[in-house]
Design goal:
Number of domains: 1
Structural class: alpha/beta
Distance between the termini: 12 Å
Radius of gyration: 17 Å
Strand order of the largest sheet: 1-2-3-4-5-6-7-8
Largest sheet: 8 strands, parallel, barrel
Bound molecules: phosphoenolpyruvate
Number of helices: 10
Number of strands: 8
Length: 242
């Protein structure tokens, strides 16, 4: 049985005054969370978030360097993230693939850096609208998975299927569309114990669509962007688990 995981990605939002989100989230939850919860604030808030988050919220970064150390100005290594108490790191988000030209090989290197220091990488992938309309979603996602996964991938990586056309657009994949791709990804996973692999869905997840998505047999949680900024919405998504 895979335990569900709900992750929030604050992207380029959040300053110290927003740490009050933690208390607001706790007070909004209708019941003790029936899932793992990960919050990924911007890098400037990671340390404070680790210090202030209750133990049922794990903290993750939104990215890490593909290098371990060296002359790479502005980069933050996976080891530095682990050092301040992060437990997860998102790699290969489509916004980084698009804005920073990150290839599958770069994403794989980042995931390997994360695993080497005990961080769990959340490896993002997903097709564009053109690829979906051309009937190539399965093939594209499977190819990204195989090229982005660390060589020694065990089930301690997490995959996030995030169709690009659904991120920040208000358009969500239907529960059936998402389930189909999750099933393809699980079948293609060449790591140990594919049944234990957690595959999250991301793309305009909101309180009103979360339950239908999370009911699908191969959807093990959600990576939530916009709705994670609002503790009321994020709490409602967490409450919709189980
Ligand atoms: C994301 O940031 O990964 C994401 C899915 O964003 P949104 O929920 O806003 O579509």
């Amino acid at each position: 049985m895979r335990r569900a995981l709900i992750a929030g990605n604050w992207k380029l939002h959040g300053q110290r005054q927003d740490l009050q989100w933690l208390e607001a989230l706790s007070s909004q939850l209708g019941k003790p969370p029936a899932c793992d919860i990960v919050l990924c604030p911007p890098a400037t808030l990671l340390s404070d978030m680790v210090g202030q988050a209750p133990d049922w919220i794990a903290v993750g970064a939104q990215d890490c360097s593909r290098h371990g150390s060296g002359a790479h100005t502005g980069e933050i290594s996976a080891a530095m993230l682990a050092d301040i108490g992060c437990r997860y790191v998102i790699v290969g988000h489509s916004e980084r693939r698009a804005d920073h030209g990150e290839t599958d090989a770069v994403v794989k290197a980042k995931a390997e850096q994360a695993l080497a220091v005990g961080l769990t990488p959340i490896i993002c992938l997903g097709e564009s609208l053109q690829e979906r309309d051309a009937g190539r979603a399965d093939e594209v996602c499977q190819a990204q998975l195989l090229a982005s996964l660390p060589d020694a991938a065990a089930s301690d990586v997490i995959i996030a299927y995030e169709p690009i056309w659904a991120i920040g657009t208000g358009r969500t994949a239907s529960a059936e569309q998402a389930q189909d791709i999750h099933q393809v990804l699980r079948a293609a996973f060449r790591g140990q114990n594919r049944d234990a692999l957690r595959i999250l869905y991301g793309g305009s997840v909101k309180p009103d669509n979360a339950a239908a998505l999370l009911r699908q047999p191969d959807i093990d949680g959600a990576l939530v962007g916009g709705a994670s900024l609002d503790p009321v919405s994020f709490a409602a998504i967490i409450d919709s688990v189980g």
